[in-house]
Write a structure and sequence with these properties.
The chain contains six helices and two strands; from the N terminus they run ααβαααβα. With 160 residues, it is mainly alpha-helical. Helix 1 packs parallel to helix 3 and helix 1 packs parallel to helix 4.
């Protein structure tokens, strides 16, 4: 139960951070990337867990919601901050360091669930998790880039 409250507090903090991010990025881009990241996280998780059976989890509702809350709040917020950092005007070395830190934070959530027994890695490991989230970030960055292009193209058309 303590774990559920911990992730509820982290969910509130992550949604607060999205409010801060709205001042730095386009709101439509943030919402689109948020929902697309939820789709990617949920679908890859379902493929890994149910279809390929590379992980197992307890069917308890408390465990399910304890895992679902960070999947719907904390992980998408971390991914959106990664996208913001990747498109910012920072040096490439700084971007790579931040990317590694955020990837490690995303994977540490899964490792935490493994350590407390909420998730069991059958034929899965940390390297595969890094690959999974790297692919998600790559797809999300492409989506964000083209969504931003469409938003600005629409603004140019409306102002003419």
């Amino acid at each position: 139960m303590k774990t559920l409250w911990l992730f509820l507090i982290l969910a509130i903090l992550s949604f607060t951070s999205l409010y801060i991010l709205m001042k730095k990025m386009n709101v439509i881009n943030i919402l689109g990337c948020y929902f697309f990241s939820n789709i990617l996280i949920t679908n890859t998780g379902l493929i890994i867990n149910l279809n390929l059976e590379l992980t197992k989890q307890d069917p308890s509702q408390l465990i399910f919601w304890t895992q679902k809350i960070p999947e719907l709040s904390l992980k998408p917020a971390l991914l959106l901050w990664v996208i913001y950092i990747l498109v910012s005007k920072r040096p490439i070395f700084s971007k790579l360091i931040h990317l590694f830190i955020f990837l490690t934070a995303l994977i540490s959530i899964e490792i935490f669930f493994v350590q407390i027994g909420y998730l069991e890695w059958v034929n899965w490991n940390v390297f595969y998790s890094y690959l999974r989230y790297t692919l998600i970030i790559f797809l999300l960055a492409i989506y964000s880039f083209y969504l931003e292009k469409l938003i600005y193209r629409d603004k140019e058309v409306n102002t003419s």
